[in-house]
Amino acid sequence: MALNKTTLGTALNNATNAWNDVAISDADLPAARQAYWEKVAECIIDHFKTAIEIKIPGNGLLAPSGGGAVTGTSTTGTIL
To answer: Residue 37: which residues within 8 A CB-CB, separation 6 or more?
Structure first.
């Protein structure tokens, strides 16, 4: 699956609906703002982790059928 604005938009909308019509005192406002933005960031990170596609060009490493040195480029990586 590729990144999708509708899927991400829905996740953000659902995650932030919990903040609608919530009474927050002035003393709790900074903590509430921090929690809100952490939830938004969590949705974006989770979307990247589950929906991103990485395409690595090339064929990787190749060994000649008659013997000889292995050639090519090997690229590895991880999205955490």
So the answer is: none
Is the pLDDT assigned to residue 44 strictly greater than 70?
yes
Mapping DSSP onto H, E and C, the string for the chain reads CCCCHHHHHHHHHHHHHHHCCCCCCHHHHHHHHHHHHHHHHHHHHHHHHHHCCCCCCCCCEECCCCCCCCEECCCCCCCC
Positive or negative, the Cα torsion across 40, 41, 43, 44? positive
CB atoms within 10 A of CB 63: 11
- What whole-number distance in Å separates Cα of residue 7 and Cα of residue 25? 33
In this prediction the pTM is 0.62
